[in-house]
Amino acid sequence: SVSKNNILVADLAKILKQNGIEIGQNRLFQWLRTNGYLGNFKSYYNKPTQRSMDLKLFVIKETVVTHSDGMSSISITPKVTPKGQVYFVNKFLEENNQEKSA
User: Fold this and answer.
1) What is the rounded CA–CA span in Å between residue 99 and residue 53?
2) Distance CA 88, CA 102 (A)
3) How would you write 59-98 as a 3-class SS string?
4) Which of 21, 29, 33, 47 could form a disulfide with 39 if both were Cys (CB 3.0 to 4.6 A apart)?
5) Alpha-carbon distance values, 89 to 19, 41, 57, 67, 68 (Å)
6) What Rg value do the Cα atoms of the chain yield, rounded?
7) Does 100 score more than 80 pLDDT?
8) Count of CB atoms within 10 A of residue 48's CB?
């Protein structure tokens, strides 16, 4: 089942696991980076690529974090949209079926 809300990548990994896809949060992040859905270098690491934003697969949640020394920074969290959840579940199920038939 797909959530009506934006969810974390970790939650997407749980949905995939419920659908018989053996992948955890860390391997899912790696797969998303390798396949061009999330950035793979320096300041773009784990940020959605322009392509995945154009497809409306992710949204970005920005949170201001205040550190103990008084400095503030912005934490960026990619969240998977309901459209993205359907997209990735179908993509993984399709890949899984191709592997079984090969």
Assistant:
1) 28
2) 21
3) EEEEEEEECCCCCEEEEEEEEECHHHHHHHHHHHHHHHHH
4) 47
5) 8, 26, 12, 37, 40
6) 15
7) no
8) 23
